[in-house]
Design brief:
InterPro entries: aa-tRNA-synth_Ic, Rossmann-like_a/b/a_fold, S4_RNA-bd, S4_RNA-bd_sf, Tyr-tRNA-ligase, Tyr-tRNA-ligase_bac-type, Tyr-tRNA-ligase_bac_2
Catalytic activity: tRNA(Tyr) + L-tyrosine + ATP = L-tyrosyl-tRNA(Tyr) + AMP + diphosphate + H(+)
Strand content: 5-15%
Low-confidence stretches: 85-89
Number of domains: 3
Mean pLDDT: 89
CATH topology of the largest domain: Rossmann fold
GO cellular component, one term: cytosol
Function: Catalyzes the attachment of tyrosine to tRNA(Tyr) in a two-step reaction: tyrosine is first activated by ATP to form Tyr-AMP and then transferred to the acceptor end of tRNA(Tyr).
Distance between the termini: 58 Å
CATH superfamily of the largest domain: HUPs
Subunit structure: Homodimer.
CATH architecture of the largest domain: 3-Layer(aba) Sandwich
CATH class of the largest domain: Alpha Beta
Radius of gyration: 24 Å
Length: about 425
Amino acid sequence: MTLSATKALEALQVGAVDIIPREELFKKLESGRRLKVKLGLDPTRPDIHIGHAVVLRKMRQFQELGHKVVIIIGDFTAMIGDPSGRSATRPPLTLEETRANARSYVEQVGKILITEDPQRFELRYNSEWLEKLGFAEIIRLTSQLTVAQMLEREDFKNRYTNGIPISIHEFLYPFAQAYDSVPIQADVEMGGTDQKFNLLVGREVQRAYGLEEQVVFTMPLLVGGDGRKMSKSYDNYIGIAEEPSEIYRKLMKVEDLYLQTYFELCTDLTPEEIQGVLEKGGMVGAHRVLARLLAGAYSQPRIPPRLDRSVYEGMGYRLESAGQDALPGDSLVAEAEARYNAIAKGGIPEDIPVVPINHRDLQGGQIPLARLFTLAGLTASNSEARRVAEQKGLRVNGEVVRDANQPIALNQPLVLQRGKDRFVRVQPGD
């Protein structure tokens, strides 16, 4: 796509929080050369979620304008652990752990970015250059900022003020991320708003190495459906590679307060269309529109460039019905919606995971319920199972578990349930 610099900037700035400096991005676009647009991803978890997709979809827009996206897999920096937005030191990962997670990342970014064209996509690992840095270079890097400047960062400032320890190695993270922009010679670096400080350090470091400074381009952060930071540890994230039924279920659970924000950040519906869906469909109908659109889009090998009316109506729905219509026929979205509706009415879905329980875990053919739920993966530990049972959150074949310490015979398959929508079928195994 060929657009004037003015038109390109107008399109790119939609939804952005910061473009620093905006006039520099205009000049870069006006130069007519292919820009290098950088994003660093630390593979601390194997999943990319729809919060990451907010930034990745904007990068896809750069690609469609003819520019090159450079994804930096932070296999080296993940061993430090990005302290951005954190209230405590994150345990470092091994290089082997980060590279295992990175393989999953590479597959998943291909659902959004154009990865098959080397003119528009490049993948790098920052261990390529960070492992080779000598102590002299580290001194040169760290001389670019003062301790006072580091403590201007909100998370560092809060931890310092509240007496929460900050490890010296955490100060090195912004420098390591910034140095990535030197071998890449990035023109633009993207990230969420929590990355603004790190991205600005990249400008300082590039200047120190005699390079043209990158433009800082930040996008809004998408919170989890419960309002907390989207995170696997909070179980409030929505992975872009999850099954459509899981994406649908999790989007239906987004708190009403955040629904409009999800529409604005995760779709390309116009403000008027979003307002119409919210007003006409109510919260339930609006949830259905969002869940249908995203579950359908992310079930595809590569999501459409724009998640707009045409995608929604291409699945057989009408946007004007605001989620009150039903989809006839068979589709992944229809199946996901039917499954969700069945569970909402107290039913047990048919397509639930099956977990065999080894006979060695049984004593006289029986097993304590807490242990059974933990082996099935519905609780992290026996103590968690007992706690959830006290809150009446566990069921066996639809019956509430009263005592998680109670042994139960496992001579036939049993359906275990946690909460309203997590099911596992357990059965005797070898």
